[in-house]
């Protein structure tokens, strides 16, 4: 299978990636207090890698490191919450996978997908807190 190049008009710009990352960070922050520290540490590391890759593109993980990070994220959620069932475990897995999706923003359609999933993340926050402040 040959590697196809993506036309430049279909690739997201750096500013789009920066803004979608910042919006996801803002959407995640209210949840950080409800999830375990090791989940937040993993998510924070992924955010740091994504932001650093805007300045230094070589920091962005390739296919195999990204696969390893995915397995680490799944294992992190499973070990932390003794399985994948439950509100906290499901949210931790969803957030981990959503932040990992930031690592593979290749097309503008990926930006739209992440934006839609951020909307879903905001709804998930109401499982933890229904206060007007949120």
Summarize the structure.
With 134 residues, the protein is mainly α. It has five helices and no strands.
The number of helices is: 5
* Count of strand segments: 0
Find the structural class using helix and strand composition. mainly alpha
Write down the secondary-structure element order.
HHHHH
| Amino- and carboxy-terminal Cα gap | 47 Å
Write down the Rg: 15 Å
Shape: globular
User: Taking all residues together, what is the mean pLDDT?
Assistant: 89
Question: Which percent range describes the beta-strand content?
Answer: under 5%
As residue ranges, the low-confidence spans are none
Q: How would you describe the overall organization of this protein?
A:
The protein is mainly alpha-helical. 67% of the residues lie in helices and 0% in strands. It is built from five helices and no strands. The chain has helices at residues 14-32, 37-55, 63-80, 87-102, 108-125. Helix 1 packs antiparallel against helix 2, helix 1 (14-32) packs parallel to helix 5 (108-125) and helix 4 (87-102) runs antiparallel to helix 5. The longest helix has 19 residues, at 14-32. It is globular and about 40 Å long. The mean pLDDT is 89.
